[in-house]
């Protein structure tokens, strides 16, 4: 554990952390505590976890857990910082597995606050809903409205019914 006021950013802050994200992180820290340490270099520049530093400051924490990396050059540390931030963006959610996980959490504890996961209420509603419920039934077949040669004007665009 190190004093939070001794931590400083490494290089430029290339990620922007909106207040809503910091608030979510602070709520997570308040609920679960620090489960991942902040990664720093030998002079306590933050390689990974600057948003956690901001959330901890918001909560008034004076000491935070860190892991210190001492065997990388400054260039390697800055590359690592970018790498850790960028690679997380390449993952997608498995919506079926996410739905099952969230549903099971509600089964285990019906009072659980799923917003602590960082998802908004709208995102949670969509995630736990059965996608089949959201699909519209196919339209009933009826007489054709458009005939070959018809031109539909769509703002500055047009669509013509033709035979290709």
TrEMBL record:
Matching Pfam families: ParB_N (PF02195)
The residue ranges of the ParB-like N-terminal domain are 1-86
Please, which domain of life does this record's source organism belong to?
A: Bacteria
User: Protein name, please?
Assistant: ParB-like N-terminal domain-containing protein
């Amino acid at each position: 554990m190190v004093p939070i006021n001794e931590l400083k950013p490494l290089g430029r802050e290339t990620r922007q952390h909106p207040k809503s994200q910091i608030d979510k992180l602070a709520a997570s820290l308040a609920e679960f505590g620090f489960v991942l340490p902040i990664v720093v270099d030998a002079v306590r520049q933050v390689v990974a976890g600057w948003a956690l530093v901001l959330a901890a400051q918001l909560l008034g924490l004076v000491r935070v857990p860190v892991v210190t990396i001492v065997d990388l050059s400054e260039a390697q540390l800055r590359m690592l910082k970018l790498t850790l931030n960028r690679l997380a963006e390449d993952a997608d959610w498995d919506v079926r597995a996410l739905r099952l996980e969230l549903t099971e959490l509600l089964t285990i504890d019906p009072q659980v606050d799923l917003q602590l996961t960082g998802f908004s209420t709208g995102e949670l509603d969509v995630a736990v809903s059965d996608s089949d419920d959201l699909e519209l039934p196919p339209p009933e077949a009826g007489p054709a409205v458009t005939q070959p040669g018809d031109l539909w004007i769509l703002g500055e665009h047009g669509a013509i019914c033709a035979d290709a």
